[in-house]
Amino acid sequence: MGFVAQRVSSGLVTLIIMTFVIFCLQSVVPIDPARLIAGPAAPAATVDAIRTELGLDEDLFTRYSQFLARLTRGDLGQSIRTRQPVLSDIARHLPATLELAAVAMILGTLMATVLAVIQASYPVARFLRLLLVGLGSAPIYLTALSAVYVFWFRLGWLPGSGRLSVRISDPTGIYLIDSALSGEPKLFFDAVAHLILPASVLALPIVVGIGQALTSSLYDVMKQGYVRTAHGKGLPSTLVIVRHGLRNAANGALTMSGLQVRLLFGNILIVERVFGWPGLGMYMVQSLAYSDLPAILGVTLLLGTLYITVWTVVEIAQQIADPRISAIRD
After folding, report:
1. How far apart are CA 198 and CA 279, in angstroms?
2. Are 95 and 172 in contact (CB under 8 A)?
């Protein structure tokens, strides 16, 4: 419990530091929010009045304390582009991004685990890693565009954009859940079909990263005495790997999973734009085009918070997988 409390406290401190850095970036970026809100033709008096209303004429620490106070109330400001509260915009786009990111992470982790087990069981299958490394090393935008061209434009097997072919009521915003609750299997399979291409493109780098880390760890674990003893009892190689190898080889893969989450958040901006996926990535790209600073900072703060949370969970999971970690760090 002491280790968990230490990791959570460390995550909270990192989160506070991140809010200060983001606030400072907001202060030094050469964009005047008051001018953007008022418009290019607005007189200087109007701009000054808006600046006073937003508190932009206060000193740095006063503005930061006000910024933190607004954050505690869930106030991320108003989007210059949509004229809506940034929190409302995020709440509307977040479910699509969470759905895509979760499916991509689960798919990538499962494929990486299967790949590692196959390579550890059958060394002749190492060519699979070379194939995936080649695919995963390509720029994400090139992989996404190639997938759209081949599987949608040329073959017509899968949808190339959007989340669903028809509009449905979305109480959760997660279309896999909403379509399943609708009681219509065609809607569910349509939602799955729309997810396959973008999720697979996002999963490729995850497969390569986690797969390589897990495979290398498995090779080391399989040399241990208790594994040779299990082999000596006549257990199948695959069963030995699954039962005795995966947990002991999990630390490297868990560390790589945390790093892949950070990469995932960056790649999702590109993938959502290519596939027309109406999530935070698309919202961020549109906000960048309009220099919508409150929206950009709001999404950045949210993604940073998610990453810090995931990394804290990963560290706790590592300690659960191998209790020796806390002793070493202490």
Report:
1. 12
2. yes
Question: pTM higher than 0.70, yes or no?
Answer: yes
pLDDT-derived band of residue 327, with 50, 70 and 90 as boundaries?
A: very low
Q: Tell me how far apart the alpha carbons of residues 99 and 170 are, in angstroms, rounded to a whole number.
A: 13
Q: What 3-state class would DSSP assign to 234?
A: coil
Q: Which two tokens stand for residue 43?
A: 């007189």
List of residues 6+ apart from 164 with CB closer than 8 A:
175, 179, 187, 190, 191, 194
Scanning the structure block, which residue is given the tokens 């009681």?
Answer: 183
Q: Collapse the DSSP code of 165 into the 3-class scheme (helix H, G, I; strand E, B; otherwise coil) and give the result.
A: coil
The 10s digit of each residue's pLDDT in 271-306 is: 998 998 888 888 888 887 777 778 888 888 888 888
Q: Which of 99, 289, 117, 298 is nearest to 194 (CA)?
A: 99
**Alpha-carbon torsion, ordered 34, 39, 40, 42, to 10 deg:** -90
**What is each CA distance from 132 to 50, 115, 124, 129, 213, in whole angstroms?**
53, 10, 15, 5, 14
Distances (CA, A) of 149 to 134, 143, 205, 275, 285: 19, 10, 20, 11, 22
Which amino acid, residue 226?
Answer: Y
Among the ranges given (17-21, 108-112, 248-252, 279-283), the one the predictor scored with the smallest mean pLDDT: 248-252
Beta strands in 207-305 (DSSP E): none
Domains of the chain in sequence order: 2-72 (no CATH), 90-329 (1.10.3720.10)
* Whether residue 217 has pLDDT greater than 70: yes
d(CA 198, CA 145): 10
Contacts of range 186-194, beta carbons closer than 8 Å, 24 or more positions apart: 190/164, 190/165, 190/166, 191/163, 191/164, 193/158, 193/159, 194/158, 194/159, 194/162, 194/163, 194/164, 194/165
